[in-house]
Amino acid sequence: MVIVTDTSVNPSRPAPSTGDSPDATRIAAFFDLDKTVIAKSSVLAFTRPFFEEGLLSRRAVLQSTYAQLLYLLSAADQTRVDRMREHIAHMCKGWDVEQVGSIVEKTLQDVVTPLVYAEAKDLIADHRARGHDVIIVSASGQEVVTPIARTLGASHSTGSRMRIVDGRYAGELEFYCFGEAKAVAIRELADRYGYDLSRSYAYSDSATDLPMLLEVGHPRAVNPDRPLRRAATENGWPVLIFARPVPLGRRARPSPRALATLAVTLGVTALILGATRRLTEHRMR
Fold first, then answer.
1. Given 6, 20, 23, 32, which residue is catalytic?
2. Quick check: is 42 in a domain?
3. Beta strand pairing status for 156-165 and 168-175?
4. Annotation says 191 is catalytic
5. Residue 237 domain flag
6. Active-site residue identified among 6, 20, 34, 126
């Protein structure tokens, strides 16, 4: 059994009904984080602030940048993700847990929120408007996932958890929220909060999240890698393309075509108003 690290970002909410109750009809929207909601690895996005605070050496920064480049340019298959996991676990060994949490909180707005896809932001807002719980399910560490989920307005979140010894990371994972573990986490969340998975949604960019996508009635592929795109085609799942990272709280900048249309509209409106004004003055004379 997988112990789900569920951090409720709104603890004041009344407790929902459990999955065993007859009215267990709540709907959830489960979102992967990296390359689905934000445009890069959430953990590696903090490379610079960790370096500035003395947690990373220059060599470690170069290694992290190289790992991030490979992550962005390649499909996240099992081997690559395992290497990424080992890299991050080794990189964080010995770090002070409270210091990491403080850095993440202090730099979140500058480091991560500019990477949020505008399309994901709008989709999350739509789910919330429809009364759905939004849940972030990520392989990234809970110290990073929790504050990001809170900023996104998510109801709950779950992420990987590192073993901690004397207030410091021991360099190994207790719970790796990846692959089949995500599906188990979703089932446990459904039991805990009374979600009807047959009516719920899930979004991911990677075929490694197929177990999560197959748990819900409405799976969606976002910027899919090749294996996930093939699975989406075979199963008739919608494919969504997110391509506009914008800071949270800021509307996406209009496209040049939209600006041109706006200019033409304003110009035509000015001409009509001008002609109406001249016609009115002529009639008055």
1. 32
2. yes
3. antiparallel
4. no
5. yes
6. 34
Range of the domain at 55: 28-246
- Is residue 133 in some structural domain? yes
> What CATH code is carried by the domain that includes residue 97?
3.40.50.1000
CB atoms within 10 A of CB 145: 27
SS3 content of the chain, % helix, strand, coil (to 5): 50, 20, 30
82 is catalytic: no
Residue 265 included in any domain: no
* 84 Cβ neighbours under 8 A, 6+ residues apart: 41, 67, 71
Domain count, the chain: 1
pLDDT in tens for each of the 285 residues of the chain?
444 556 555 433 333 333 333 345 899 999 999 999 999 777 767 777 777 777 776 666 555 555 555 554 455 556 666 676 777 777 788 888 888 888 888 888 887 778 899 999 999 999 999 999 999 999 888 888 999 999 999 999 999 988 899 999 888 888 889 899 999 999 999 999 999 999 999 999 999 999 999 999 999 999 999 999 999 999 999 999 999 887 665 444 444 443 343 343 334 334 333 444 444 444 444
